[in-house]
Specification:
Layout lengths: L1 H8 L5 E5 L5 H8 L3 E6 L2 H10 L6 E5 L16 E5 L7 H14 L3 E6 L18 H10 L5 E5 L23 H15 L5 E6 L1
Length: about 200
């Protein structure tokens, strides 16, 4: 759902930075979809592993990127969007605000996904995640300088939602663009109230 949201928000062929890319799977998918992607991470070893795995992704470049100093070395808004998934929830409020300020300096739009307040800590987590409300994330993005923050539902639905009409679980399939987008928007609207992940678009 994050991938589709990026493709709705950013024109095809746009310049995208994935900050905190890890092994850069999202970067590779966006590259395949026709975007000019930079995969950035602070960890040299992780970045090297991502580059090795991404040999078949010609539209992805790799660079060391510090989320709290992204604007260093940039003269202006170099990217059409900055994206990330499962990154910001590992930091404190003041660090998150700084990260937003740095992103805003080099792009007009940030699209990201995080686990929200409905998530429960499990052994699969790192242990330092902060599961905040959507309202809190909106406030942090606004404190970082973004004037408009839209919230959409993500994945990871509770089991009881399987009792809802099956049409609400039918993920949009490739086809007519307008019909696909309408269905995607419908899914995002109701999912934001029940899903354990949220997607934010800051502009």
């Amino acid at each position: 759902m994050l991938l589709d949201r990026v493709m709705i928000e950013v024109p095809k062929g746009g310049r995208v930075l994935e900050a905190g890319c890890g092994l850069a799977f999202l970067s590779k998918l966006l590259s395949d979809a026709g975007y000019d992607v930079t995969a950035g991470d602070i960890d040299d070893d992780v970045l090297a592993a991502a580059e090795r795995l991404g040999l078949q992704a010609p539209n992805v470049s790799y660079r060391k990127a510090d989320l709290f100093a992204l604007a260093d070395g940039h003269a202006g808004r170099d990217y059409d969007a900055i994206i990330h998934s499962g990154v910001l929830e590992h930091f404190e409020d003041d660090q998150i605000v700084l990260a937003f300020e740095q992103q805003r300096a080099i792009t007009r739009k940030v699209v990201f996904k995080i686990p929200n307040i409905r998530t429960t800590m499990t052994p699969a987590h790192f242990g330092n995640e902060r599961f905040l409300s959507n309202q809190k994330w909106v406030a942090l993005a606004q404190a970082g300088g973004f004037g408009h923050v839209a919230v959409y539902g993500g994945d990871s639905l509770p089991h009881w939602t399987q009792l809802l009409p099956s049409v609400l679980h039918q993920y949009p399939r490739a086809g007519q663009k307008e019909k696909r987008q309408r269905l995607f928007e419908t899914l995002s609207s109701w999912r934001q109230f029940v899903s354990r992940h949220s997607i934010f678009v800051c502009s």
